[in-house]
Amino acid sequence: MEPKVPTTERRGHREHRPEVPPKLSRLRFKLGQKAKREPKFRFYSLYGHLLRDDVLQVAWKVVCGSRGGRTPGVDGITVHHIVESEDGVERFLERIREDLRSKDYQPDPVKRVEIPKANGKTRPLGIPTLRDRVVQTAVLLLLEPIFEADFLDCSYGFRPGRAAHDAVGEIRSLVWKRYREVYDADLKGYFDSIPHDKLMKGLEARISDRSMLALIRRFLRAPVKEGRGPPRRPTSGTPQGGVISPLLANSFLHWFDRTFHSESGPGTWAKARLVRYADDFVIMARFIDERILGWVERVLEVRLGLTINRDKTKVVHIENEGAILEFLGFSIRWSRSHRRGGGPPYVRVEASKKSRQRARKRIRELTGPQMCFMPVAELIASVNRFLRGWLAYFSFGHSIKARWDLVRFAEDRVVRHLRRRSQRPYRPPDGVSLHQHVRDLGLLGAMAQARG
Q1: Cα→Cα distances 255→39, 50, 63, 250, 288, Å
Q2: Cα 66 to the chain's mean position, in Å?
Q3: In whole angstroms, what is the distance from residue 267 CA to residue 285 CA?
Q4: Low-confidence ranges of the chain (pLDDT < 70)
Q5: Are 310 and 302 in contact (CB under 8 A)?
Q6: 3-class state of residue 42 by DSSP
Q7: Each residue of 9-25: pLDDT tens digit?
Q8: What is the reported pLDDT for 177?
Q9: How far is CA 280 from the centre of its chain?
Q10: What is the C-alpha to C-alpha distance for residues 202 and 216, in angstroms, rounded to an integer?
Q11: 122-127 LR contacts (CB < 8 Å, sep 24+)
């Protein structure tokens, strides 16, 4: 099977994947097959492929099809600017090719923004320029099939053909198999704390092409522009938001996966199981003891140089009354049967309380007083976009009530918005309630949600 085109991925969602030309598809297939057949082979001739027209063209199409194409970096340039410019796309890619050919390519500073989190804190996001996104995607096109051949089945995050639902489904399956003690780990600032020297040493286990390694090192060391201050050059980490960051982050924790399943790891001597989605992971076993906890701390903190957030890391005995494991927005628990007359217990997977609270907060923002300037049709369209994404993600498991409640909440919020929209009361057509009216205007209704 040919490897799929890389793309940015949110949890449970994948962006558009452009068609790959046959020659590039064959190249990626050969790289993957070589990596599978020879696990210790180090690839020595990769950089030259970055100059190929098909590689840069596909990289451009991937960036255009992602959200990143509409988000400018420090230079303010988006896909629209390139397409509408006098030189056009061809000249834009040709300048990139010339810089790569001369090996004078220098990444631009990364624009750093803070994304609000549910707990009131923020998550740093690094936004490369459009030019750097294209080059990083080209690098990803060549490296992904190599590292995909090495990655283990326990890893689910940011990988072709895998998504958050697969990881949650595996946890559910393991609970059924009586792996009901769970070490729920949390890494402190993982993407910002990856040691560059250890990361590069891991990459060098598969890549001996010095030019390719030098280019990756430049991306890791690209200055970060935050606010109005001067750019600073990072000494660790790979910024969230970079196209190549998920692959680099996965390649680094791959060594944790391998060690876990080695003869000296708890996957062997404790028969434990690992489920990892990027930096979110759980270890499941029939019994979690100090030996497993000590092993995790030694490998992650001593060998890999990471930091465990002990305030958020815990052991969950999932069979206990009221015990809940929260993972990737879902809550997972051992539940009694809700059938009339009783029945056997089962593994209940549903949208977590925090996920539902965040969703309601977002809908309040989309329908708040500050949105009174927006035409009603546009406001309903923005609410629908959010609802479709949330409902699609939480279509997994037993979230029907949470989905139904959110649709009804959104409908109530839009009705409330219309009532306070102006000094004059908003009047629906004669004989039609406001609730029915907003559904007639296109807001997703409860019946549509139930069919979804």
Answers
A1: 14, 27, 29, 9, 22
A2: 13
A3: 9
A4: 1-17, 67-69, 117-120, 341, 446-452
A5: no
A6: coil
A7: 445 444 446 788 899 99
A8: 94
A9: 11
A10: 13
A11: 123/240, 124/192, 124/239, 124/240, 125/239, 125/240, 125/241, 126/224, 126/239, 126/240, 126/241, 126/242, 126/245, 127/68, 127/71, 127/72, 127/73, 127/241
Distance CA(250)–CA(276), nearest Å, equals: 10
Q: What are the C-alpha distances in Å from 46 to residues 50, 51, 52, 102?
A: 7, 10, 11, 15
In 365-401, which positions are buried (b, 16+ CB within 10 angstroms) versus exposed (e)? ebbeeebeebebeebbeebbebbeebbebbebbbbee
Do 4 and 161 contact (CB within 8 A), yes or no? yes
Residue 335 CB neighbours (<10 A): 13
Q: What is the pLDDT of residue 68?
A: 61
- pLDDT, position 129: 94
- Angle (CA) 40-295-181 rounded to 5° is 110
Q: Is the C-alpha dihedral spanning 71, 73, 74, 78 positive or negative?
A: negative
Distance CA 308, CA 300 (A): 8
> What is the secondary structure of 300-365 as a DSSP string?
IIIIS---B-TTT-EEEETTSTT--EEETTEEEEEE---STT----EEEEEE-HHHHHHHHHHHHH
What pLDDT is attached to residue 411? 94
* pLDDT score, position 137: 96
Give pTM, 2 decimals. Answer: 0.89
Residues in the chain: 452
Residue 420 in tokens: 């306070």
User: Position of tokens 């600073």?
Assistant: 232
Structure token pair of residue 219:
């991306």
Q: How far is it, in rounded angstroms, from Cα 330 to Cα 391? A: 13
d(CA 148, CA 145): 5
Round to whole Å and give the CA distance between 111 and 405. 38
- Cβ atoms of 82 and 130 within 8 Å: the answer is yes
Lookup: tokens for 332: 């997972």
- Give CA 88 to chain center in angstroms: 31
